[in-house]
Amino acid sequence: MQFENTRTFARNLDEQDKLSKYREEFIFPKVNNKDVIYFTGNSLGLQPKNARKYVDEVMEDWAELAVEGHFYAEKPWWDYHERLAAPLARVVGARAEEVTVMNTLTVNLHLLMVSFYRPDKKKFKIICEEKAFPSDQYMLASQVKFHGFDPKEAIVELRKRDGENYWRTEDVLSMIEEVGDELALVLIGGVNYYNGQVFDMKAITAAGHNAGAVVGWDLAHAAGNIKLELHDWDVDFAAWCSYKYMNSGPGNASGIYINEKYLGRKDIPRFEGWWGHNKERRFLMEPTFEPMPNAEAWHLSNPSVISFAPYLASLKMFDEVGMEALIEKSKVLTAYLEFILNEVDKEVEASFEILTPKERGCQLSVFLHGEGRSIFEYLMKNGVVVDWREPNVIRLAPVPLYCSFEDMYEFGQVLKRGLS
Ligand SMILES: *Cc1c(COP(=O)(O)O)cnc(C)c1O
């Protein structure tokens, strides 16, 4: 498509956009009495209007039924989480039994490491990307130490080539081959939080398996953003948070995926709790653990239903829209933003550079030469919510569910004023 940097052109695209009506389903903060242009859905998604209704429903059931709400609430609490599995499985390309929601992301990564990182003296190394999200770095290092290994030796970081801003798949694959027999686990962020790169999860998973390793993915920036086929790619396990592209609310619950080949097995080490026990017999309070036949075997506690309510509300919308349609819009919207950035770059003196490679979802990371921090502050004051990363990067996520083409055009105008 031949893009144009005009308001008319942008509005035209909005009129043709089948998803444009979903913008009305979200609550936008205001700056100078106007809805902001929101580019930080990769950090915290906007609140869907129906989230409050779902939360209120739980609050009312709690008020009216108290303990009886476990079984007699509008949506009974004891199996509330089951409602999330099928729609969430459709978002990540899995079978419903492979997916569940529990705890928060870093907690889940630790719990999954219990099952899937089983190092011995010969096979103990983990491959991850350099400068992974800090929580993942701390998680991996502490797991390695917990098993008595030295993180310096056990953790192999994938590096970018000198002068390049992204990882090359061929380098990832050859590193996997090089570590070979010593490789116990590959655990990478499917979409890198910093440069927005999407890794070739299918190829990397296959290469990891070839080396005899387990392959897991942190999908914090991938779930609800890009096309995932976890089951077909034969991924072993994955986890993600729900408050970024999944719009479930601050710090909210995490989803996990466990390949069906691991389900129903008693020989897999796992930290266990009563909510992972066979649900038909859960309240018999028997002494011996009998795992649920699905991913719920990894559940520990009875979950926080109030926190699941907005997640369920959001999933209802994802199900209605479907990932195909979402990604179709995402590609055009992100390309339009890229076009606008390049147009602005031609017109102003201070230049910048897009770090994100063409393998991407809906995020562009922009490296600003010169006065980056002041541009960031200027944008925030002028109703454009972006995110700042040291040393000089702003990240822009044009989330297709609630960002418009006119937002991209308007952003270009604001940016141009700030740079000239
Ligand atoms: C956002 C994010 C996290 C956050 O973890 P929490 O446990 O939810 O605080 C972890 N890892 C990655 C890659 C992230 O992007």
What would you say about this model in short?
The chain has 420 residues and is α/β, with parallel strands linked by helices. It has helices at residues 7-16, 51-65, 69-72, 82-92, 105-116, 134-146, 151-154, 169-179, 201-210, 305-321, 323-347, 372-381, 405-419; strands spanning 26-27, 30-31, 34-35, 37-38, 47-48, 99-102, 125-129, 155-158, 183-189, 214-218, 237-241, 254-258, 352-354, 364-368, 384-385, 387-389, 393-396.
Query: What's the name of the CATH homologous superfamily of the largest domain?
Result: Type I PLP-dependent aspartate aminotransferase-like (Major domain)
The CATH topology of the largest domain corresponds to Aspartate Aminotransferase, domain 2
The low-confidence parts are none
Radius of gyration: 22 Å
Mean pLDDT: 96
Any idea of the CATH class of the largest domain?
Alpha Beta
Order of helices and strands: HEEEEEHHHEHEHHEHEHEEEHHEEHEEEH
Integer tally of domains? 2
Count of DSSP helices?
A: 13
Helix content: 25-40%
Count of distinct strands? 17
The hetero compounds bound to this protein are:
pyridoxal-5'-phosphate
From the helix content, strand content and strand pairing, which structural class follows?
A: alpha/beta
Estimated share of beta-strand residues? 5-15%
